[in-house]
Design brief:
8-stranded mixed β-sheet, 310 residues, Adenine-specific Methyltransferase, domain 2
Length: 310
């Protein structure tokens, strides 16, 4: 069944209902491509009651940090991202010492001199070994300060995005770093179990139960589904669809509604497919359309918010 959910009043109503549930303890900890924070008013009201929460493509974790209070398992194949979360979860002193050292330099520098701090951070990141606390700290800063919030590497695997001069030079980095040690974040991270695996290996590690819930936010099926040095190909989309068809808990998949996605999931009688229009916040040099149709696919009867047609 296809349910359009593009009505603006429906989005506002869903947001009010979500706020009433009191499930908004903290924001995502860092920027990540394809983040779902702006779509939470539609996603959160459709999350069913569950005993355990799973997310195989965790990214920025918007849904978890906003709406989940249960025992949770977060996975992402990106090693720097998951090392960042590990450092935050365990309060890694080397990680925080490095961050606050850069924050001190940032606050002492003039506005026109802050680009040098960024490029020093970029050079250090590109030269550092993987999965270290210092690299994780530099990774976080690059995510905050890069132009357009982009994360792009060259043929040598080196991060090469320039400084986001227009908006980053005035950023309050101390506030951003302090957030990582806030009570709300500490409480969230205590309940979060971390892994950095291919999604299939992650799923194979559990015996799923009907009362489990999984939120699935894979890289988009598009020519830009490669970010950093990681690919997510058509074959990966097909592997994911096969795994979801066999999933014994409840799941919600949110992704761009491309012909491949429509082909993979339409026609399955146990699935419900919703569509809604999404406005992208960034549109760098015309690379992305400012709006696109997203698909929300569930294997359970999702709540329909006021104003939607069925």
């Amino acid at each position: 069944m296809v349910v359009p959910v593009s009505d603006a009043a429906a989005v506002r109503t869903a947001g009010r209902e979500h706020a009433d549930r009191g499930l908004a303890p903290c924001r995502p900890l860092l920027k990540w491509p394809g983040g779902k924070r702006s779509e939470l008013p539609l996603i959160a009201p459709r999350i069913p009651e569950h005993s355990r929460y799973f997310e195989p493509f965790f990214g920025g974790g918007s849904v978890y940090f906003d709406a989940i209070d249960s025992e949770s398992y977060a996975n992402d194949l990106h090693p720097d991202l998951m090392e960042f979360y590990r450092c935050v979860k365990h309060g890694d002193e080397r990680f925080f010492q490095h961050l606050y050292s850069i924050v001190d330099d940032w606050e002492r520098a003039s506005l026109v001199g802050r680009d040098a701090i960024y490029y020093d951070c970029r050079d250090r990141y590109n030269a550092s070994p993987p999965t270290t606390a210092q690299r994780a700290a530099d990774f976080f800063l690059l995510r905050e300060l890069a132009y357009g919030g982009m994360f792009r590497v060259n043929a040598n695997g080196h991060f090469n995005v320039p400084f986001g001069q227009a908006y980053a030079k005035n950023k309050n980095l101390r506030e951003k770093v302090d957030l990582l040690r806030s009570d709300a974040v500490v409480a969230k991270m205590e309940r979060l179990n971390l892994s950095a695996l291919d999604f299939a290996d992650f799923l194979d590690g559990f015996e799923f139960r009907p009362e489990d819930f999984m939120f699935v936010d894979p890289p988009y099926d598009s020519s830009f589904s490669k970010y950093d040095t990681l690919d997510f190909s058509e074959q990966d989309q097909r592997r994911l669809a096969k795994a979801l068809m066999q999933f014994t808990g409840r799941f919600m998949l949110v992704c761009k509604a491309t012909p491949l996605i429509e082909d993979l999931y339409h026609g399955a009688e146990h699935l419900r497919v919703h569509h809604y229009e999404h406005q992208y916040k960034f549109n760098i040099k015309g690379r992305f359309s400012r709006s696109s149709t997203h698909a929300m696919i569930t294997n359970y009867e999702a709540a329909i918010v006021a104003g939607e047609a069925s």
